[in-house]
Prior knowledge:
This protein has 120 residues and is α+β, with helices and mostly antiparallel strands. The protein has helices at 4-22, 59-64, 71-87, 105-115, and strands spanning 28-33, 38-44, 49-55, 94-96.
Amino acid sequence: MSSKQDLRLRRKERLRYQLRQKGHGRPRLSVFRSEQNIHAQVIDDAQGHTLAAASSLDKGLRESLRTGANKEAATAVGKLLAERALAAGVTQVVFDRGSYLYHGRVKALAEAAREAGLDF
């Protein structure tokens, strides 16, 4: 029987394969959610470089947020990431939710990034 971690890795790899097939070379907005924080980055897989990144641990956000583990923090991270991505010249991305469901903090981050100008 597969462990919980093995199943999570299989979901993540399956999603990444689909993104490579349907992404048409667009950068990937990858989300990592921990129990206490949320991180997101825009990655150019062709060159292997991170174009923009934001986290609930960034200095400006850490001071203004009560905790990094709620929807408010995810919304702030999404807005900050979109601003940094637009400054780097990225307007279209492919959303990589990893092995997480599109729900809660992950959904809040995605919607905030869309509202701030990213297209996905």
